[in-house]
Design a protein that fits this description.
Helix content is 29%, strand content 23%. The protein is of the alpha+beta class. The chain folds into three domains: 113 residues, 3-Layer(aba) Sandwich (Rossmann fold); 98 residues, ATP-grasp fold, B domain (D-amino Acid Aminotransferase, Chain A, domain 1, 2-Layer Sandwich); 56 residues, 2-Layer Sandwich (Dna Ligase, domain 1). Helix 1 links the parallel strand 1 and strand 2. The longest helix is centred in the last third of the chain and has 23 residues. It binds adenosine-5'-diphosphate and magnesium ion. Magnesium ion binds next to loops.
Length: 326
């Protein structure tokens, strides 16, 4: 963390995100996972600094609302001043109250004119798989047949006629807690899903032995990179042992991924696409805080640098808007 920072400046940044040469670049905070050591955050910080930004890292847990400050928001090290931009790598785990508070801080930063990537409303839409699915459907994108249910009885009533299904935690990631429901007994207990079921048609065939899906990384309305995730288990997250492979992304998949990001208004996102039994691409989910280590291993674009460039360009545009209002 930086101490004794010079006053926040509104230095213009050139369109490719490089500092235009004024004494201070934009002041940026990256919110990282508690415990630190994030490979992604380190690369992002280095890339932003190379592009002239002054970068602090902090956690959302360490931030407070405080009525004694004119801004009302205390980010460690800033003494009540606000940064020009905030990049959210992680909001970190916590109880409902903690997550509500941290999202509240992000909402407040946006409302105070700070450019936040991704904004709280985007994180909320993506973290809740059911809202993301709803927004994809509303945008006319193909999605697997999906239904939510509160309580096991409602889930059983839906599942009865529709096996096999996939059950996912509403707030899951990296394949954790994703389960196939081949028979009704496979339905997880209410305690495992917080009483809320997210049930989806299983899109593979029983004969399949090799599985793949697409991860497409979108930033600033363009595709930075994509990979096929290939494995012998039907859950093809890299975290679950699948391997990243380079492959040319078809036009249809590109358009779907970009449209999915637009549907939730994400500045950057990881979009999962999967082919169903008929070979039709479906939008499976979107991640508003995507990792890119696996993708970087097979991709020529420097993802951290491209993200830093897109983000700093957005921060500069916001600064210009803020100055126009004043
Ligand atoms: N409906 C489905 N049918 C078949 N496989 C699925 C289905 N949903 C998810 N999967 C597999 O499980 C993985 C994890 O699911 P996903 O919805 O992306 O959740 P997570 O947020 O945990 O990554 C996917 O990448 C895919 O391989
Ligand atoms: Mg996924």
């Amino acid at each position: 963390m930086l101490d004794n920072l010079p006053p926040t400046s509104s230095t213009p940044v050139s369109p490719d995100g490089l500092n235009a040469g004024a004494p201070h670049g934009p002041l940026v905070v990256i919110f990282i996972e508690e415990g630190g050591g994030d490979w992604h955050a380190k690369r992002l910080k280095d890339a932003m600094e190379r592009r002239g930004a002054r970068v602090m890292t902090s956690t959302l847990r360490a931030c407070s609302f405080d009525t004694s400050l004119a801004s009302g928001i205390d980010i460690p090290g800033l003494g009540g001043r606000l940064p020009d931009g905030v990049f959210v790598r992680s909001i970190s785990k916590g109880a409902l109250e903690a997550i509500t508070l941290r999202l509240g801080v992000l909402h407040a930063l946006s409302a105070s004119g700070v450019r936040v990537w991704n904004e709280a409303r985007v994180i909320e839409r993506c973290v809740d798989k059911s809202t993301a699915t709803f927004l994809f459907q509303k945008a006319g994108l193909p999605v697997p047949a999906t239904r939510t249910a509160e309580g096991r009885d409602m889930a059983l009533a839906y599942a009865k006629e529709r096996l096999p299904l996939v059950s996912k935690p509403l707030f899951g990631s990296q394949g954790n807690g994703v389960k196939r429901v081949d028979q009704l007994d496979d339905l997880p207990g209410e305690e495992d899903v917080g009483g809320v079921y997210y049930l989806q048609r299983y899109l593979r065939t029983p004969e399949q032995a090799n599985f793949s899906d697409w991860r497409v990384f979108v930033s600033g309305g363009r595709i930075l990179g994509s990979m096929v995730r290939q494995g012998t288990h039907w859950i093809t997250n890299i975290h679950q042992g699948a391997h990243p492979q380079a492959a040319n992304l078809e036009e249809e998949a590109s358009e779907l991924a970009l449209a999915a990001a637009r549907a939730v208004a994400a500045d950057y996102a990881g979009v999962d696409l999967i082919r169903d039994q008929l070979g039709q691409l479906q939008v499976l989910e979107i991640n508003s805080n995507p990792a890119w280590k696996g993708l970087q291993s097979i991709c020529e674009v420097d993802i951290a640098d491209a993200l830093a460039s897109d983000f700093l360009t957005a921060v500069a545009a916001q600064t210009v808007r803020n100055e126009a209002v004043v």
